Amino acid sequence: MLIPKTTHPNLSPASALRLGLVGLFDAGLIWLIVRLVQDGSYPLAGIFIALGLVVTVSMSLDRFRAWRWLCVGLSLALLFVLYPILYTFYISTTNTGGGHVLTRQQVIDALERVQYVPEGGRKFSWTAFESPAGEYALWLQAEGSAAQWVTVGAVQADVQPGTGSFGPADENGIPLEVEGYRRLERRDVIVLLDRLGQMEFGAPPETIRITGLNAAATTQARYHYDEAQEAILDQSTGTLYRPAGGSFVSEDGEALRPGFFTGVGLDNFNRFFSSAALRGPLAAIITWNFMYAIFSVLFSFALGLLIALLFDNLPGKRIIRTLLIIPYPIPALVSILIWRNLLNPDFGALVKLMQAIFGSAPNFLTDPGWTRFAIILINMWLSYPYFYIVSSGALQAIPTDMLDAAAVDGASLWQKFSRITLPLLLQIVSPLLVASFAFNFNNFNLIYIFNEGNPPIAGTPIPAGHTDILISFVYKLAFTSAQQDYGLASAISIVLFAFVAVITWLQFRYTRVLEDRH
Amino acid sequence: MKRLLFVVVLLSTLVLSSVSAAQSPVLTIWTDDQRLPVITELSAQFTEEFGIEVVVEPMGIQDTKDAMIRGASTGEGPDLFIIPHDNIGALVDSGVVAPIDLGDKAELFLPNSLEAFSYNGELYGVPFAVENDACFRNVDLIPEMPETWAELAEVTRALVDEGKVEYAVALPDLGYNYYPVYTAFGGYIFGRDEAGSYTSEDVGMDSEGMIAGAEWANALIRDGYASENLDWEAAHVLFESGQAPFIITGPWAVDRFKNNEVPYAISACPAAEAGGEPGAPFIGVQGFMVNANSENLLLAQTYLTEFIATDEAQQAIFEGDPRPSAWLAIFEATEDPDMQGFAAAGANGQPMPAIPEMGYVWDAWGNAGLLIAQGDLTPADALAEAAAQIRTQIEEGN
């Protein structure tokens, strides 16, 4: 295939602008990539490099002109859809979570930074001096012993102010001046504090470190990482800690803090499926989860459709329509909280009203059945306007001649609805129903804001509520009740993802069957 | 192509050169909104005094823990941050906080505030405020706080019978805000090891004291003297509208009670029997911690030991957001009756356990409370179940 090669003797202004923008984009991207590499986020950096290459090549070479607009969508999909999914999967195979957020190397580094004062070690108060060459020295004093003069690598014991190179002392016995050095005042020292803190003064083996603004001590590194044994030695006690399950653990089973994150294979999935504690309430929760999603969609759709049919040809349609969709623009959070207060057993307005009329009212927050009823009711309130809008639109698209023909044939209202309107309508809205089901299956807000999954189920091995759905149960499990266990939470969300994916796929298959019939 | 390459190279060099950092120490502090003004002001003083720039950034107090833990691996985060003490276990386990040595200044703090900020025998922060629940009564209805829980029940039941109130007590929950009742009867959540630290090996949820404590509320609820519906908001509404004469709650409720002009008084809680130890609430302590991964570790520690652990700074923080101070001199000097009430109630208070296993307690405990209140389970059964749930999770979590 021969493509005539276009040549550009002169760059047109538009191309120049485009290339300029690509240059800017690349510069920004390179900056981002450098930052990511510095932070050690290599996978994300990799994705960005790929993205940058695709964009640059397709935008600057005419041969790839066709890719220009496609590449934007592709990169966004790569970045915001594919990468999070892969990353979640990756996290699910690790023990990432509270106590296990650092890499093994970071933990080793952190532990090797820990200093301790060995037995027989000494503590001092210190005063810093600086030479014109920028070298630092400390005048150390300890109670009951003579002062010391230390620099990095050298120590001069038993020094006296007013002798040798040391000038006369101030009221604390510290020389006011030292030959070749300038005494640093508190204000200067504070700025330098952490730089001084990095230095090891005195001569090995006894090195002195600054441990605070007024304190210094003969310290040693407490932990040492032994490459050969791949273990950490606590030099103060002689205990050896070996890596096991994301921590360095001694033979007595004592684990060093912090732990590190490490791959654990499919352990998190195993935990989810095999833990007796988790399995206990799972069946009840899954059953309710399906009921919740199915009834929510079914009833909201039915109500929305009913209203759409009733108000299809009514005077004042516009005003009614406006009033009817009011629940839609109100934030769900607000609506749910209002409903929660309306149904409060002690002072809820609706409850009071029911008590006045019927003499008693069900307890909508503590009775499992009524709580579920209330949740479905609220979900209807929240989502019927959506189905009302969708159905009214879809109803306009149904050709009236069919209905007229049916009327001529003597069909009843119900026959017209069930044989003509509904099937045609379903064809249009079924993808929306499927999407709505998938959404409601994981509709965490309503469950959690209304009653936090309560009332509790009695007799479960771990806390669970009658109105908990999988996602709220998982949320409580992974985030509120335990240490944040990102690994387990990722594993469970992948299981949930699989769940919803399969259900959605089945539904789409089913709806396609519906379509094929016509 | 060449032109393009040139542009790319030029721009990236520019950008790269701006990445390299400047080298004079700058302290960054995360603070909650309430204390943002006072910390900003204090930090300006610090800058003036020591010539070190301090950047104060607002950060929701609930978000700080997560942000610190997530930032640990990349070395991000501030040098110092303000946080409630009960996050300490999770933070230490994640290697995010550095220990601190207060030296002689430790004597200047409320002892149980330092106890709260200690973990495994090491001090991990400098506290400035303590918070605890106390017993609130409607003084028009209960002029004097009865000495025992039994007496209190008697007095308040009589008020219901006389038709003066709807409920004898308002119960926000049967967990955190009910703790003084449990402890009065000898209940506890986690036992302590020899060193005095909480240990997850001793779960006290189903101990006799806990059950006896729960029975007190159970009797009131079953007889219709307290609501079956445990709801934090509803309980406060009951108290502030005068429909219930007694509630156990914390400093956060004071403003709303004032706004509703309910005549309240705050005091220590009753005991199980006359002359017994009054019920002890949980104590929450707020203070500064130092980021273990900070490049300015010594400077940050110095900021706390030399600058925050002083009369002036503690006074400024106290005035900026008046709650009982962790600084002994201010704590003892207060003449505000509300604060004296909280101090009296907190005198024997217990630091909320900061061990990570405490995370397993809340849901189980809350559920047990709901099941008791609804009458689904007896206190003994409900608490035994909660204890089993906590033990299961401790076991499986390890």
CATH fold name of the largest domain in chain A: MetI-like fold
What is the rounded Rg of chain A? 36 Å
CATH superfamily label of the largest domain in chain B: Periplasmic binding protein-like II
| Structural class estimated from helices and strands of chain A | alpha+beta
Give the overall silhouette of chain A.
elongated
Instruction: Please identify the top-level CATH class of the largest domain in chain A.
Output: Mainly Alpha
Find the biggest chain interface: A-B, 69 and 71 residues
* Total separate domains of chain B: 2
Q: Architecture of the largest domain in chain B, according to CATH?
A: 3-Layer(aba) Sandwich
Helix content of chain B: 40-55%
Name of the CATH first level of the largest domain in chain B: Alpha Beta
Name given to the CATH architecture of the largest domain in chain A = Orthogonal Bundle
Oligomer: heterodimer
Whole-angstrom Rg of chain B: 24 Å
H and E order of chain A: HHHHEEEEEEHEEEEEEEHHHHHHHHHHH
Tally of helical runs of chain A = 16
- Approximately how much beta-strand content do the residues of chain A carry? 5-15%
Tell me the number of structural domains of chain A: 3
Give me the secondary-structure category of chain B: alpha+beta
Short description:
The complex is a heterodimer of chains A (518) and B (398). Chain A is of the alpha+beta class. Chain A contains 16 helices and 13 strands.
Model description:
The complex is a heterodimer of chains A (518) and B (398). Helix content of chain A is 55%, strand content 11%. Chain A has 518 residues and is of the alpha+beta class. Chain A folds into three domains: 13-92, Up-down Bundle (Methane Monooxygenase Hydroxylase, Chain G, domain 1), CATH 1.20.58; 115-221, no CATH class; 273-516, MetI-like (MetI-like fold, Orthogonal Bundle), CATH 1.10.3720.10. In chain A, strand 3 and strand 4 (145-151) form a beta hairpin. In chain A, helix 13 runs antiparallel to helix 16 and helix 15 runs antiparallel to helix 16 (486-516). The longest helix of chain B has 19 residues, at 379-397. The termini of chain B are far apart. Chain B has helices at 2-19, 36-50, 61-71, 88-93, 111-116, 149-161, 179-184, 208-222, 232-240, 254-259, 297-308, 311-320, 328-333, 337-346, 358-374, 379-397; strands spanning 26-31, 53-58, 80-84, 97-98, 118-119, 122-123, 126-132, 134-138, 190-192, 198-203, 246-249, 264-267, 282-291, 350-351. Chain B contains 16 helices and 14 strands. Classes of the chains: A alpha+beta (518), B alpha+beta (398). At the A-B interface, helix 1, helix 4, helix 5 and helix 15 of A face helix 1, helix 3, helix 4, helix 9 and helix 11 of B.
